[in-house]
Design goal:
Elements lengths: L1 H9 L9 H9 L16 H8 L17 H19 L9 E10 L27 E9 L8 E5 L16 E5 L6 H20 L4 E5 L8 H9 L2 E5 L5 H4 L1 H23 L7 H15 L2 H10 L8 H7 L2 H9 L6 H4 L3
Amino acid sequence: MIDFILQMSALGTPVRMKYIPSIAFSVARGRPEPNRPLKPPGKNWAKALENRHPELKAKKVKALDWDRHEKNIFPKIAYWFEVIGKVLEDPDITSENVYNMDETGVMLSKLGSVKVLVAANDTRDYRGARVKRKMVTAVECISADGRYLKPMIIWPASTHRANWTTFPTPGWHYAFSDSGYTDSILSLEWLTRVFDPQTRERADGKPRVLICDGFGTHEKLEILEHCFANKIIMCRLPSHTSHKLQPCDIAVFAPLKTAYRDNAERLERGGVNTVGKQHFTSLYSPARDTAFTKRNILAGWSKGGLFPFNPQRVLRDLETPYAKLREAAGDSDTPQALVTAP
């Protein structure tokens, strides 16, 4: 039974604690009839099993899309480090000219979770709040030496209204789309009117590396032409790996949204009925100042295994027994380069 539990865990399908007593009962029913139990063990038997076997550990796990699961992204991440490692070996490429761009959606008036004191018999896990589920997209970019560029804000609208930007945000760029998300046209606009002007002078003719996710909006011909003509090396992350490789995702966006929700909370306590687009910049700007610290930015690059360059920072958390079994078996579907990454 222990071998079965460990094997299921290695394959990425761990057995739930509540199922352990029933499985144990099924095993015990294979004993000779005089030694067969009449009923399954109690609900605490699984915890006792853990205590008896140090190779087991009980923990909570969250649901994760199979496309993002370690057993499906390990080869892609190993190969990514081989490719990006060769790019970063170029002596003309320095940390100040390596950037990561990513989009994040910010819900206008979603408040954060808070600790409260209630009656002992109160079972509610929620509180009343005005939640406007309109999403505003912010396109952010950080550098490997700890800086961050001015953002591009994309309104979910068919036009732009002046009263949405009364809060002073010098250098910010504003756009709009029906969906509120970026597309190929807005990606080109960001590249030519936000990224290029803010990074060209510092690069001083040297190559710039732009790491971004795998969305197809970055494949527009004009984008590729602009990158080629201006020495911008666009390095796209493998699909479904941004939570492991993208510095913005790893260390910046979570504190950014937490700070935004705290600001929205204070605004609501001040008497504002509903947070709307006209409030967004006054909430988002100080949230950026809180989240986009040099410490957070550098931590994102470090945890992503890029600066300092250390693929094992990521791979050691992915190299599950299942991945090792594939390597040992010489899986023909996995190129040799993928399983021999540093």
